[in-house]
Specification:
Helix content of chain A: 55-70%
Number of strands of chain A: 2
Structural class of chain A: mainly alpha
Mean pLDDT of chain A: 96
Oligomer: homodimer
Order of helices and strands of chain A: HHHEEHHHH
Largest sheet of chain A: 2 strands, antiparallel
Amino acid sequence: MSLRHAVLGLLAQGPASGYDLRKTFDASLSNVWPATQSQLYGELGKLADAGQVTVAAEGPRGRKEYAITDAGMAELRHWLTEVEPERVRRSDMLLRVFFLGVLDPEDAQGYLRRQVQAVTAQHERFRALADVVDEGDDSLSVYGRIALEWGLRFTETQREWARWAQERIAREATAAKG
Amino acid sequence: MSLRHAVLGLLAQGPASGYDLRKTFDASLSNVWPATQSQLYGELGKLADAGQVTVAAEGPRGRKEYAITDAGMAELRHWLTEVEPERVRRSDMLLRVFFLGVLDPEDAQGYLRRQVQAVTAQHERFRALADVVDEGDDSLSVYGRIALEWGLRFTETQREWARWAQERIAREATAAKG
DNA sequence: GTACCCATGTAATCAGTTACATGATTCC
DNA sequence: GGAATCATGTAACTGATTACATGGGTAC
């Protein structure tokens, strides 16, 4: 049910069309909540039916500009302050870790080595993004920067963990041989 | 498509029934890949149709014990070594952060304070789990412990981040007033 | 006039959740 | 005999992904 709130949150910053929202999603929200074009248009329709957004203006090429209503703002605030975030997060990266025992130790270490590389690359992408976001002073930039800081710290932690895990498996393998 | 591989991974440790798998999921895999009973039985049926598992034995009460086949092991190894894990992870906790600007600073800080509490509680649960897992010496315990270490480090990082974010918002609010 | 971007929508499919439905066996 | 546990399955619904389909406006 979070896509609905993501849309409300973006419309709380100002009116926008489905097309505008898609670009904002791709640019800033895609790291925490990806959404496809068809999902967005569908959700806007449902929100309009529920009275949480309205078509504020129509433009060329059938463009519909949506605005959040009072009911929509109330729902957004409710979600922000009263609804507890999901604590379980699916991770197929960690799921694989449970089963590394079916590989020989070299391949298990290879898996973790690739994770170090991948997460390092992602850290660099976040770093580059931070430079851009630091320019902005709108609400989405200010709080987007805080979310991005999470990404920077998270990728750093994950890199250290993957290195630690690699070593632990190496020691495990040596102990088994000797 | 990861549930399929989670099931293969568990059956790689030894034969089991759908009922057994459900218990193992609840006990160890639920933190990285939750699955419901109905999903499990459905997936076992599909895997059997695909020839990646077989019914190795039947027991009382209609119990079917499944075993992984060579084709299933090949698929599992392929998934572990060749398929890149998803890098995007949905987080409604972080999604909310983007929109904290619609709240007044006190409520925004309240949100982050609650996250500190929630993640601290989860850290403690992981710590308790670690004591239990450290006892086991089977493959799932050894690698499960490595996954758990990720959880311990991740929750620690998240707690520090949430504290930092709280302070940053406090400073932001003071600067806006002054 | 043609290529590119703006702009919206539908259909099919898949994964995951919740609820329902049923019955056998074991323990006391 | 009754409760708890073992054990499997189906149905309805929701959310997300992929692909398809269409057409208007703008810049050159």
